[in-house]
Amino acid sequence: MKKLVSIILLICTLTLCLASCGGNNDNGNNDNTPTCDTTGVHTYEHGECTGCKLKVFDVLKDYIMENSTSSYGNTYTIAFGSYETDVYYGSIDYYSDKNYIGIGAYYQSVPGLSNSHIYDIGLRFTPYTFEDGGYEWSAGCTRLSCTCPSISGILDPSKFSSSTSTLEHTSSASGADDIAWKAKMALQGFIDNYLIDFTNNVGSNISIGSLGFKRYEQ
Hints:
alpha+beta, 7-stranded antiparallel beta sheet, two-stranded antiparallel ribbon, globular
């Protein structure tokens, strides 16, 4: 009988010992390894943080709404440059009713000239832009007297840079290639003069590369 009690006591002691050891083994769950949640340094791929899944779209949307230079209805706008003084100008707009961000870039060879043709390109940025293969865009001339066609396409931002010669499109209309070249000029000028600095000021480690324009990152 005494032997049986001793065995039982020994088993209980071992059980308590193992439980105590197990309690001290956290398997690394309580380590202090820095994460994007604790450091605020996010790494973005395809529009999303690889660590916490924060979307570039949501960061930009909130920033535009908080810092808009003007708003009308469901549209919040941050404007850059001026038609009267700059060869390149444009805006970034958040449309809350349709939940997308519009990037509008304009190019005019003679700023402020009343009869000068102004060429523009508009890009649509949604929460699913990278999943859908890139930015939907359309381009044309803003003058009513302009007979140039309107064209459109899909832009893969990772392939676009300051050395890009034109934009791919599907239009066969006369003058379409010239519009594509002017639209390319408008977008390059807008990125170089405004969009790089804008993204660097947004916060959450956003940069021009976070929008997919990797070739513009230094």
